[in-house]
Amino acid sequence: MEEKRKITQYEKRLLNIEEVCDYLGIGKTKARELIRGHNGFGIRIGNRWYADKQKLDRWIERQVA
């Protein structure tokens, strides 16, 4: 029988607001500002916002460089 394994937030393609908070160590207000801003990694599905993790990681690299 196949064993299902739980996907962690770090393996997901899209992160919700709370997962972004945990990932970056920031609060919800700042996470919402970043995701809804024009940074290129925010995705709106219905009335919910998500961050594309790959684009978020690239954005972070650009900010650090």
Summarize the structure.
The protein is of the alpha+beta class and 65 residues long. The protein has a single domain (14-64), classed as Molybdopterin biosynthesis moea protein, domain 2, CATH 3.90.105. The protein has helices at residues 17-24, 28-36, 53-64; strands at 14-15, 42-45, 48-52.
Mean of residue pLDDT?
Answer: 91
Radius of gyration: 13 Å
Looking at CATH, which topology would you report?
A: Molybdopterin biosynthesis moea protein, domain 2
Categorize the overall geometry. Answer: globular
Please give a structural write-up.
With 65 residues, the protein is of the alpha+beta class. It has one domain: Alpha-Beta Complex (Molybdopterin biosynthesis moea protein, domain 2), CATH 3.90.105. The chain is built from 3 helices and 3 strands. The protein has a 3-stranded antiparallel sheet with strand order 1-3-2. Strand 2 and strand 3 form a beta hairpin. The chain is globular, with a radius of gyration of 13 Å. The mean pLDDT is 91.
What's the topology here?
Blueprint (H helix, E strand, L loop, with lengths): L13 E2 L1 H8 L3 H9 L5 E4 L2 E5 H12 L1
Antiparallel strand pairs: 1-3, 2-3
Helix pairs in contact: 1-2
